[in-house]
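User: What would this chain look like folded?
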Amino acid sequence: MRFDRRTLPSLLLAFCCIAIATPAFAEDTSTTAAPAIIPLPASLEMDAGRFHPGKTLHVAITGKLADRRAIAALANDVLREAWHRPVAAASAKGHADLRLVLAHDASANPESYTLRIARDGIVIRAPSDTGLFYGLQTLRQIATPGSDAKAGIPALHIADQPRFRYRGLMLDSARHMQPIAAIKQQLDLMARYKFNTFHWHLTDDQGWRIEIKRYPKLASVSSMRKETVIGNADDGATARDGIPYGGYYTQAQAREIVSYARARHIDVIPEIDMPGHMVAALAAYPELACTPGPFDVYTTWGVSDDILCPSPQTFAFVEGVLDEVMATFPSHYVHVGGDEAPTTRWKQSALAQDIIRREGLKDEHALQGWFLRRVESFVRAHGRSIIGWDEILEGGASPTATVMSWRGMQGGIDAVRLGHDVVMSPTSHVYLDYCQSKEKSEPPCIGNFLPLHKVYDFEPVPDGLTPEQATHILGGQGNLWTEYVKTTQDVQYMLFPRSFALAEVLWSPRQSRDWNGFLQRLPPQLAELDRLHVNYRRLDPQ
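Assistant: Here's the prediction, encoded as structure tokens.
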């Protein structure tokens, strides 16, 4: 069944951790296996002995942290969850069961950390709060909730840092919204597995989801569609359900999400898709189109010919929207979309054709490039940068624009060779709205097939790039579009366990990736999802 979590095959359950060759010690370390950690650390060595918690656990923090209180609270939570024992601050010269050491090092990766577990205590050392945060997330997977205090945890040494600096997941709230509590839970899980970017798709033809006070009809009109297509639109479905659907997030709610994410060392990138995918906005402000309208918020999926017209009032609208978006979201990047913008209306528009002639542009694709460069100039004047889907290359994107390559890897390759920074997000490996199997019992999905192992096979740096070009690959991102993903349980089912595979791809060294080893480390993670009441897709029998 759709939400069935049947017991995993006994052979898979027998391997809850990775066996790592270690020297033979006098104690039990010759048979001690490494903990089942996802993503796999860059370096992990087993040591002799085990750490056993006392009746009260003492924590010491050394160094000038940016947010000492937040790190202390997380450390306390991890220890209490693990052993259900009191946690207290260590005295200045007293024993510390867990010692957190901030050691500033400008040459170190700010997300790096070391974790040493010994008989006499645990030490996490990092150059930043973020590194300490990730070290504690790793400790959480070693000292798991409800651990056996008598057995303790194995002594080991981890030296860890991410392979990529951009490790993202995108959530589409335009087609179907998610409750604030569900988004927070997703952020919690992203933090546990060391994702650091939440790309929030907030506008599309089927709904506008962020409050813009200067344009109130975006909330009162653009956020509501009168009904929704039934069945798969790609298969020709035309029937509608007759049920109004909509809503939006207030700016206060958006700031709440930003603050919650920041506390978990996650950056929230808002997406305001333009010039296409704007029918919902045109329903409220038809004067922004190249044709008179009227327009209705789209009730089916797919791409509309109706897009923003490159008029002075359109740019006033875009700048007004982005003013409020940038005031709400402090992220370095603003995602401006740029995908799937048909040129039909611009070909028919006297205004658009006049701009093409006036600016000496080749065609309508070049006009889109002109449009987005003007938007980028506005964004950069506010100290931000734009990121857009790979179609932005077709019109001649500014060299300072970052490209998110979704139509395969080639767009990213082309962008890198032109000097752009790139986030790889190809449909082939990381479109998490795709079906997870070909079984009829799978929930509705947009089509195509993306099983767990295909996500694990994702390699963000394609062959053929020079070492210098490869430095422009910032990382990768999984995308969850929600045309057919309606509920929180549906979102979770599509994310897990595939996002575990992506987490390892983006964090762990390429040479350490091993599919069988990953499968052996999955059962404790799935057990944790069960404990947290998170829905997920069961593993297929091996």
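The domain at 166-531 is CATH 3.20.20.80 (TIM Barrel). If you want, I can go into more detail on any region.
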